[in-house]
Amino acid sequence: MLLQWHSKQQQQVSAAAPETSRLQQEQQQEPADGSVEVVNSSNGSTAREKDGQDPHQADRQQPDSTPAADASSRNQQQKNSAKARLQPALQCLDGDVAANVRLAFAKLHLYTLVASHDCYVEQRQVHYSFNSPSDVPEVLRFTALEDLPQLSDLPWGDDALAKAHPDALQLYQQALPWFKEALQYYKLEGWVTEHCHILFEMSNSYRCLAGFESDPHKRCVMHRNRAKLLQDLEGELSPTHYPGLSRSISLELGNIYREIGDIKAAAGRQPDKVRSAFLS
Questions:
Q1: Is the pTM value of this prediction over 0.70?
Q2: 241 φ, ψ (degrees, to nearest 5)
Q3: Quick one: pLDDT at residue 145?
Q4: How confident is the model at residue 229 (pLDDT cuts 50, 70, 90)?
Q5: Over the stretch 31-80, which tens digit does the pLDDT of each residue have?
Q6: Cα separation, 47 vs 39, whole angstroms
Q7: Dihedral sign of CA atoms 172, 101, 198, 108 in order
Q8: For residues 188 and 39, is the Cβ–Cβ distance under 8 A?
Q9: pLDDT one-digit tens code per residue, 269-278
């Protein structure tokens, strides 16, 4: 419905399109590697933090120039362009509606990343609700906006999944900005449940991306950043008023530290080094 409305209002919105919004400026400053991006749990702000080396520095210094990588790069540029065209329409919506639309886009990329992780990292079979455009019921179809892809132009089934780290990183980078934009509305003050659930989703995106990473140090960096998303909340939420959320945060942090310890143990680290991973 949003896309149909935007198509009808395109002339009205186009006058505001040249103006660069605050969120667009933030996206232009987005670092290429989201895996070392830390989100302040209280206000959704971000800070760049180094832990050893940049996990994807080598990837950027030696870009893959294969035809598949070139096609993936063009696809990424098209998606970024489509997002930029949607921003003026989102600015015209009420804050809660725009935030929910941003969450929908974030979850679209996240769930694709989760399915990719299930299929190619955990080697589990993935079941699809729709295997091709013809499977989509008419009630869920909409008229595509100008310059945006048709359903038939999108990848479906296994073709939509990330099979290796570069594609998984691309999905992560597509999801993260949408999540951070949604956090600008769903702040901890006043939106405790929604704010925490978004941070859980962001933690899940780190987890799935780490599954495609072969370097143990880089994987640990990603898991530490999962912890940084949530550790401030552990002592900030009242167990009396938010018992479910408090337990979920503690459980998530426990799983994170366990995964870090498992990575270090598998890499042959000494037992005292492994124990320190759970306490760091």
A1: no
A2: -85, -30
A3: 64
A4: very high
A5: 434 444 444 544 444 444 443 344 444 444 444 455 555 555 555 565 66
A6: 7
A7: negative
A8: no
A9: 765 665 565 5
CA 33 to chain centre: 12
Considering only CA atoms, which of 83, 82, 89, 86 is closest in space to residue 9? 89
Helix count and strand count (H, E) for the chain: 11, 2
Half-sphere exposure for 23 (CA within 13 Å, toward CB): 21
Query: What CA–CA distances, in Å, run from 159 to 116, 132, 176, 249?
Result: 10, 11, 22, 34
Decide: helix, strand or coil at residue 203. helix
Unique residue bearing structure tokens 């449940």 = 193
3-state secondary structure 209-230: HHHCCCCHHHHHHHHHHHHHHH
From residue 121, alpha-carbon distances to 7, 90, 213 in Å are 40, 35, 10
> How far apart (Å, rounded) are the C-alpha atoms in residues 222 and 245?
22
Burial of 163 (0-12, 13-18, 19+ CB in 10 A): middle
Q: Which tokens sit at 45?
A: 């702000």
Structure tokens at 264: 């270090």
Farthest CA pair distance, the chain: 65
Euclidean distance between CA atoms 24 and 21, whole angstroms: 5
